[in-house]
Amino acid sequence: MEHYFTNNEDLKSEIRYIKYNYGDTSLTLASDNGVFAKDKIDYGSKFLIETFLKTSLIKKGDFLDLGCGYGFIGLTLKKMLDVNMTMVDVNKRAIHLTKMNLKSNNLVATVYLSDGFTNITDNFDVIITNPPIRVGKDILLRLLLDSVSHLKDKGELWFVIRKDQGAKSVMKILAEKYTCAVVAKSKGFYIIKVTN
Predict the structure, then answer these.
(1) CATH number assigned to the domain with residue range 42-195, chosen from the 4 options 3.40.1180.10, 3.30.460.80, 2.40.128.130, 3.40.50.150
(2) Residue 195 region, left (φ>0) first, then alpha (ψ -120 to 50), else beta?
(3) In 32-81, which ranges are E strands?
(4) Considering only CA atoms, which of 51, 35, 54 is closest in space to residue 43?
(5) How far apart, in Å, are the Cα atoms of 95 and each of 67, 92, 102, 118?
(6) Contact by Cβ (8 Å): 72, 98
(7) What is the pLDDT of residues 43-57, one digit of tens each?
(8) Residue 128, Cα to own-chain centre: how many angstroms?
């Protein structure tokens, strides 16, 4: 099984379309083999975005969708809020799909390939991510800690993680240096906000 954080140039393309509706917002997103949640928007990402929209006070500024996949989180925020959106992923197919989806939904964002923060020099008001748990705990923690170091003053990191995937131990490590809070819980998923 290919992981969605690897690049397999030989993987057959089978584009399919996914619809998402939230309030008055409607998006149609192209997806494909080799990307995360290729057949439907996963519950964790939906729970993350909807919790953020209901509870975060930051509604404009510079946002980063880290590990954007085919662009669900970044496109939704771009469509609903007045933000400057940057979207990155390590997966070339995900980047291609994100660019396609921005164009088809008449949205504009900065999109480029980056393995974690390798190619990222900017700081952001909000970094939001459904992180790739299967990369292992060490890389996961590095992604989250690097995220906090790329926040502007009073910026926020938002991420979703399942309780059984180490939510409490990840929070404990982050809380040693930063303000860390569980904003919402549902079906074993935790939405966590970290501020610097």
Answers:
(1) 3.40.50.150
(2) beta
(3) 60-66
(4) 51
(5) 10, 5, 11, 16
(6) no
(7) 999 999 999 999 999
(8) 5
